[in-house]
């Protein structure tokens, strides 16, 4: 008996046709909007020199890098995220890229994390970014593109909650101590959407703030007003056609990562109700810190797997069971060439067509196959049809059969698309 394993490695997944179609549906819709907004596609290699990846994410993250020595005795690693390779791109191709480079990237990344529900060792990241501009228009474009991407997928009322890191820095600087820096306070404030104010106060006290300062800290941040920069961004977002009731200001949104320098935002789907499905903001210093050139940047990332789950939960992906619109049956080896000619005509007209792959099976089995595959229409080309220069088009749902010319069948199938 073979010892070859018949299951995936832990933390890795197969995607069977139904789920793969949903994932393709989501990625195609997203790419359509990204390109409508002028973003260029970018891909980077799965493997990079390990030295490019190590030391960029912090000690804990470095432990999650997949690194190894290849047959050429080089230390290499699997892509951990898309930001560090993009920093390399910006440095390596600085003379070839436009001054204001906007890119989208949809690729798998790898992390040697502990597998658990919703956390995998290989997963898809989906990013859009504008590099080189500090103007508020770039920030507004990112938010608008995120909104219209979700609208394209069919979400009715996505909610985009925005803030400015400067709001947080200004409101919280009075509470910084030698033992509790501003980033530590921000990390606690960022939990207000998951924890009560009392719990966050308790966490701040545990970190070293007094009870009074911890309480005042939350009062200060919850009553903060948007910066002038953020007001301008929100005005521009409205000019780009994003409904005003979609975007709101929340001074407690923090986006825990330390590298954000300005506008930040998170996106939720109220009817899905499973937390944030994406977010981003301005990060003007990160590319240089990652070893690249000094390039200001603003961008966002969708949680692709969570977005796919939301599309599935709300049935926005249509019928993912159907792979073909029509099945062309075979009436025996002698008549097969004519059936194949009909299939070729259908495909040339843009109709998704499957040919039954066995010349020796009876039509009943072929009809049963179409029914199981949920192929809605079947074409039969038998001796009478060849004589009359026609085909029979059968609806699998109603059972109705109509004899017609191939051209008429094509017109009818195109109307049904």
Could you please describe the fold and organization of this structure?
It is a single chain. It is elongated, with a radius of gyration of 28 Å. It has an 8-stranded mixed β-sheet. Strands 13-12-14-15-16 form a 5-stranded mixed β-sheet. It has helices at residues 17-36, 50-53, 59-62, 83-92, 136-153, 165-172, 182-189, 197-207, 211-222, 228-239, 286-289, 304-313, 336-348, 363-372, 383-388, 406-416, and strands at 40-41, 47-49, 67-69, 75-78, 101-110, 122-131, 159-164, 247-249, 263-268, 276-282, 297-303, 326-328, 353-355, 377-380, 391-395, 401-404. The model has no long low-confidence stretch (mean pLDDT 91). The chain has 417 residues and is α+β, with helices and mostly antiparallel strands. The two termini are 48 Å apart. It has 16 helices and 16 strands. Helix content is 39%, strand content 19%.
């Amino acid at each position: 008996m073979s010892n070859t394993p018949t299951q995936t490695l832990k933390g890795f997944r197969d995607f069977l046709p139904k789920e793969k179609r949903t994932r393709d549906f989501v990625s195609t819709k997203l790419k359509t909007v990204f390109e409508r907004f002028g973003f260029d596609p970018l891909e980077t290699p799965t493997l990079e020199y390990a030295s490019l990846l190590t030391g960029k994410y912090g000690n804990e993250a470095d432990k999650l890098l997949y690194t190894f020595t290849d047959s050429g005795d080089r230390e290499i690693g699997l892509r951990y995220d898309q930001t560090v390779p993009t920093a390399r791109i910006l440095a390596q191709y600085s003379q070839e890229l436009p001054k204001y480079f906007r890119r989208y990237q949809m690729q798998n990344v790898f992390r040697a994390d502990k597998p658990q529900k919703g956390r995998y060792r290989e997963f898809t990241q989906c990013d859009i970014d504008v590099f080189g501009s500090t103007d508020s228009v770039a920030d507004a474009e990112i938010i608008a593109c995120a909104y219209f991407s979700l609208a394209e997928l069919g979400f009715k009322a996505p909610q985009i909650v925005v803030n400015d890191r400067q709001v947080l820095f200004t409101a919280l600087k009075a509470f910084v101590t030698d033992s509790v820096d501003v980033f530590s306070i921000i990390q606690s404030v960022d939990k207000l959407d998951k924890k009560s104010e009392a719990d966050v106060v308790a966490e701040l006290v545990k970190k070293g703030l007094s009870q009074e300062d911890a309480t005042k800290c939350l009062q200060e941040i919850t009553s903060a007003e948007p910066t002038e920069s953020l007001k301008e961004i929100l005005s521009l977002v409205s000019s780009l056609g994003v409904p005003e009731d979609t975007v709101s200001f929340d001074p407690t949104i923090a986006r825990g990562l330390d590298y954000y320098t300005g506008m930040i935002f998170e996106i939720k789907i109220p009817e899905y109700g499973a937390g944030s499905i994406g977010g981003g903001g301005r990060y003007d210093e990160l590319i240089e810190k990652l070893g690249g050139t000094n390039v200001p940047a603003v961008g966002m990332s969708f949680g692709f797997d969570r977005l796919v789950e939301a599309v599935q939960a709300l049935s926005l992906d249509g019928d993912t069971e159907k792979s073909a619109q029509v099945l062309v049956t075979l009436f025996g080896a002698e008549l097969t060439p004519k059936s194949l000619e009909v299939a070729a005509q259908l495909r040339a007209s843009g109709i998704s067509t499957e040919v039954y792959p066995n010349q020796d099976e009876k039509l009943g089995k072929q009809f049963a196959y179409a029914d199981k595959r949920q192929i809605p229409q079947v074409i039969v080309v038998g001796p009478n049809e060849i004589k009359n220069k026609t085909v029979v088009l059968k609806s699998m749902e109603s059972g109705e059969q109509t004899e017609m010319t191939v051209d008429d069948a094509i017109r009818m199938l195109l109307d049904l698309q």
